[in-house]
Known about the structure:
- This protein is α/β, with parallel strands linked by helices and 238 residues long.
- It has helices spanning 10-21, 49-58, 97-104, 115-123, 136-163, 172-190, 194-197, 200-209, 215-237, and strands at residues 2-6, 25-29, 42-45, 66-69, 85-90, 108-113, 127-129.
- The chain folds into 2 domains: 2-130, Rossmann fold (3-Layer(aba) Sandwich), CATH 3.40.50.720; 136-237, Orthogonal Bundle (N-(1-d-carboxylethyl)-l-norvaline Dehydrogenase, domain 2), CATH 1.10.1040.20.
- β3 (42-45), α2 and β4 form a beta-alpha-beta unit.
- α1 (10-21) packs across α3.
- The chain starts with a strand and ends with a helix.
Amino acid sequence: xxxxxxxxxxxxxxxxxxxxxxxxxxxxxxxxxxxxxxxxxxxxxxxxxxxxxxxxxxxxxxxxxxxxxxxxxxxxxxxxxxxxxxxxxxxxxxxxxxxxxxxxxxxxxxxxxxxxxxxxxxxxxxxxxxxxxxxxxxxxxxxxxxxxxxxxxxxxxxxxxxxxxxxxxxxxxxxxxxxxxxxxxxxxxxxxxxxxxxxxxxxxxxxxxxxxxxxxxxxxxxxxxxxxxxxxxxxxxx
Length: 238
């Protein structure tokens, strides 16, 4: 398939490498290089969400070309000027082109619109699922929490580790164990620690010991842990 990618950031570079290795003929251009686009079966926009509608409106593809985007939160309406439209959003973190390309193979994709999107996913050995338009934003918010907010959490851990005279690497095995427990036991079964047992004295001691700049994050997460613990108790009483 002849595929043109518009947007040469991390996502665009990841798709360029993955699709090229899957046997497609792929061209990658920046959003301000649309004049370099040639005939293509698929034009895929990997620009930031707030640029998709603008860039799509500037395209003049040949008859039959599918125009798609890779946004998780946006519907096909942002591609409205075009007749054949699609979207494919991978549930994969793409921090660099090379690592992203590896993760795109075999990933799970949320797809919509023209069947070409599902065809591309299959060429990457991926799994396809679909959502109603009114659920896309909630889906994307969940993906952001699962990936980006998890990274932010580990940034919080790194600051606290330094305060304790240690490093992030000392706590990564513990974090991996906890995530494995969530997979095996679910969030309620995996929860341990002072919030799990209602140990307010320990939590107060923690707050006194950590930097003031980190306390609001700790409190927010402790409150979430309290809620999880209360849900577990309610279920056990039912």
